[in-house]
């Protein structure tokens, strides 16, 4: 059973931001029109993190197939994740830190990663709740943590803060 461990994000802030910028540059070279954003816990000060960096690459529906093809030249497809006509996940588990890349069509059903970041940045109570959830699952099953995390974000998507989040 894979166990989950968390760290204070402040331990990695500078390194993770530099890491993000390196990958953003690579992605923008291939996809100049893409909106490339640092998302996930490493993008949120005072958060607890597994230490991996998450990037959301947002493209138009017309660009999606080409973007998927080009990102496949940089990263491994994440076969554990869902794959749709508007969403594709990639990863690089060998990088330090590990990297996750979420390719989404702008305004599609999976174009929410940046919204989660914004809501957590602006709402201390939600961030504290999310950090508490992580502490509860420290050194426990990764699958159980992912299920609890999914429930947390499903609830967050129903809030006014999330619904009113605009670009």
Automatic annotation (TrEMBL):
One matching Pfam family: GrpB
Coiled-coil stretches noted in the UniProt entry, renumbered to this chain: 116-143
Q: According to the lineage, what is the superkingdom? A: Bacteria
Keywords, comma-separated and alphabetical:
Coiled coil
Q: Known Gene3D superfamilies for this protein?
A: Beta Polymerase, domain 2 (3.30.460.10)
Specify whether Magnesium is a keyword of the entry.
no
Q: Which PANTHER family match?
A: GRPB DOMAIN PROTEIN (AFU_ORTHOLOGUE AFUA_1G01530), GRPB FAMILY PROTEIN
Could you tell me what this protein is called? GrpB family protein
Source organism phylogeny: Bacteria, Bacillati, Bacillota, Bacilli, Bacillales
